Amino acid sequence: MKYRSDIDGLRALAIIPVVLFHAGVKIFSGGYIGVDIFFVISGYVIALGLLEDLKNGDFSFLKFYAKRIRRIFPALFTTIAVTSVFAWHFMLLSHLVAYSESVAAAATFTSNILFWNTTSYFAPDALTRPLLHTWTLSVEGQYYILIPMCMWFIWRHLKGRLALVLGVAIIASLALSIYVTVADPIANYLLLPTRAWELLIGAFLATCPLPPIKSLLLREAAGIVALLLITVPVFVFTPATAFPGVNALYPCLGSTLLIYLGGGPGSRANKLLQIKPLVWTGLISYSLYLVHWPIVAFTTYLTATAPTPVVSAQIIGASFALAYLSWRWVEQPFRTLSIKNFGPYILSGGVATILVFSVGAGVVWHERGFPSRFTDFAEQVIPGHELWREGTCFLHRGPDKSLWKIENCTLTHGDSHRALLWGDSFAAQYVPGIEANAAHLDATFIEYAAASCPPILFSYPDANPRCLAFSQNALQIIKDNHIDSVILSARWRRFKGNGLEQLGDTIAELKKRGVSVTVLGQSPEFADDVQVLTYRKLGFQPDGSKRWELRFDPAFNDEVAAYAQGATFINPLTFLCDKEGCPYFKNNQYLFEDDQHLSQVGSTLAVAAFFPLQKN
Fold first, then answer.
1. Taking the complete model, does pTM exceed 0.85, yes or no?
2. CA 204, 210, 247 angle in degrees (round to 5)?
3. Residue range 47-94, pLDDT digits in tens
4. Helix axes 5-22, 285-303, angle to 10 degrees
5. Phi, psi for residue 462 in degrees, rounded to 5
6. φ and ψ at residue 26, rounded to 5 degrees
7. 209: which residues sit within 8 A by CB, 6+ positions away?
């Protein structure tokens, strides 16, 4: 297969936005689209190599998988090994246990499935998961299992219809991705069935080469359009953008167009991709992708602050330096190994490596993080979310409204009001406090909450249909149970640009029904788990309390208040924080159970301090 420097340049256009986005350079708010560019390139290169082998009668599964192991395993498992040393030294028990699960998942190329079930790419705790980025390798690894088998079968039994089969698969996967964009955004982002079309677009181009564009003017115009399709989303998209789905078409089509143009006479855009700094960055892009995220994760884990411009620059510099070392001393030596002479050894070595890392991760998991690592710090089990009535009153992602029953979700019994507490986990966090303060509350409080579902009645860009159905069911609950007061609470930051703007309309609709509405603003969030803050001795005060800075600008609640016109607005930060920060530990007790949710103690104090419908 002929080497193309413009493809390495395109890899640079993929990795640079990813690194800058993860390093906290805010202007690159859509930098995550670089992953989609990588998928297209990978689909093209892999399919092109397979097609050449099939045409030459040189195809074998052993050869294919030995080449993939030789390319992927050395840098990947070196990164995991080095990252594991840091995890062993710095991570608390529960975090190391979770990390061990991610090691096993990364080693077996199933981490996308693990993270689908345990977190999301843009979740707050994502910043402290050092192997979260391996989800992309898992998607590709799963693709590598399927694509050689499929191409070999099609070539042998459906010769001449390869492009047709790939075209149908692209349409089916894209259609699924568009549907799942709203049905299950996390699955859409992380799983192969909804990402396959991005890889298959590259494969389609490799297996069905198009005639070159003869017109110079048209080629140049196409090159400019391709660059715009890639670069504009980097600066326009945000984590709130519905993705992948339709929006992923822009970087994928732009990448495909540049690869296509570079296969012919090319354009100035392709010449741009061939400049030495971009080609060099493309050459180290795989190692750069692997090393940059653990640096970001441990920086956040150890400092518990958002990166400043100086820290961002240090992250970027360290990432490039380590990536070069990995490329020079890990990737390159293994790439010289002959598949013909060492193929079986490479394959067996790859299998052994998977087993060794998986067993090692299993030992750490079985030993619950090896408590003996810490002699001066005891990690606590902090009561909190287990009191939310999960599965009945606080439903999980994609909630089934039929599971909710009022008899199970009535928290208190008061005489003056019937109040509905409605929202996501940031509403459910007040449940322990409501129950603890029942004697001081002048209402019958009813819990109605679902994970990642805002208390918004109307459609918004990333609306999960089940969330919308769950929300709209609140109107029937209000009517059937004579609710006269509604308290809305959510992680409003998550819904900025993606639902928060509909808050005013929701309030107006509720007031039309004669219901008084109270909106609880954004409550505190820290950059790390409160027990990590304690272990790192961050925010200790002379009186024995501990406080730390917020993950977000406190002025954000002014935005929430502006959207909450017509409702009573309560700013939790007024009661829970001051200019010095927010206490997370007081009177020998944690006020939060993780990095963002109130503990049972914190919830009790918060409800007593500012919750509506208190007795006089």
1. yes
2. 50
3. 999 999 999 988 999 999 999 999 999 999 999 999 999 999 999 998
4. 10
5. -105, 30
6. -65, -30
7. 263
